[in-house]
Description:
Layout: E1 7-8, H1 16-26, H2 35-48, E2 52-56, H3 59-69, E3 77-80, H4 87-94, E4 98-101, H5 113-121, E5 130-132, H6 143-153, E6 156-160, E7 168-170, E8 176-178, E9 187-191, E10 204-208, H7 211-221, E11 225-226, H8 236-239, E12 251-252, H9 263-273, H10 276-294, E13 315-318, H11 322-331, E14 334-335, H12 347-350, H13 360-368, E15 369-372, H14 380-393
Parallel strand pairs: 1-14, 3-4, 3-5, 5-6, 6-9
Antiparallel strand pairs: 2-10, 7-8, 9-10, 11-12, 13-15
Helix pairs in contact: 1-9, 2-9, 3-4, 3-7, 10-14, 11-14
Amino acid sequence: MMKNKPIPYGRQHITEEDIQVVIETLKSDYLTQGPRIEEFEEAFAEYTGSKYAVAVANGTAALHLCALALGVKEGDKVITTPITFAASANCVRYCGGEVVFADIDPETYLLDINSVRKLLSEAPKGTYSGIIPVDFAGRAINLEEYKELAKEYELWIIEDACHAPGGFFTDSQNEKQLCGNGKFADLAIFSFHPVKHIASGEGGMITTNDEVLYNKLLQLRTHGIVKNDDLYENSIEFAGGEDNYPGWYMEMQDLGYNYRITDFQAALGSSQLKRADKGLIRRREIAQKYFNEFQNGKFIKGQSGVVEGHAYHLYIIEVENRLGLYNYLRENKIFAQVHYIPCHLMPYYRSFGWKEGNFPKAENYYRHCISLPMFPTLTTEEQEFIISKVKSFYGE
Length: 396
């Protein structure tokens, strides 16, 4: 029976409640720039424990706006990981900045702080502008450590938390620090792509505790336009008013973008957010079962036990004969995936001089990694089928 039912590596879960809230929004007066967006922002800020949240078109737009708000420009050097989706690095290039990669920790797959520290210590202070650490696969990076490093070298931090809503790390005071709470990173970003924890079709969110950055993001999200009497630069007379600015008046004060999210996307996101914690519980159950079944397998190289605070967007194992397993699983309609081809070895980034051998840990990870299906509606029967096929391929 299972052979006839495809199992993707990730899948959205749309409930009847989700459908109804979208229908209600489609029947309302607003399809965009309406009340659903602010409702989603407020709920998400509360969920992450941050002061402010700004909903945008997608995670890539969120990254771009963060780089713009922080003033990334030509000549600025920004450090990030090569094991991430390309958008984590591309946002720097959009602004003319230079991307500098550092290697990963092979045990966690996260940007290795020792590699970052080495880069910083070997260059004159002021060489680098910021760091973009990634909560890869859903594992929360220790931002307290990165904050200390950033403070020493006067750097900003953008936390790419696309994989980790609801994830957390435990700080030096033994307190849980939620991804995106704004305590250690200047800005954090999330994605609502269908395979993510919270799906709104497309969509993204930026969180921050910085009011100045928050207001800058609101402006840049909508073409760089402001509509606020206190912020206008042109005179009331020029605007066509007498004692006050007229109601129609607005000003484009910066070069921004149309990176807005729609109301029906925001409504879907809000509905999904209500059961986000339930989804996390299920993801951790799935991860535990994978670990229990694979922990003694000789072909497993990297995935450690279930980690507290891990949001498990992905469940990754490292194997020998990855291509063989990948094809065998596909023959059985199990559509595993590979995350990711190292960014520095993409042809675009090779053009800047990056080459094989620059980051041996990241490159070794790529040669062996494969992501098994991981989503809350994965059934026990489906997971057991996946496990049986992985084991059978390796003669377990």
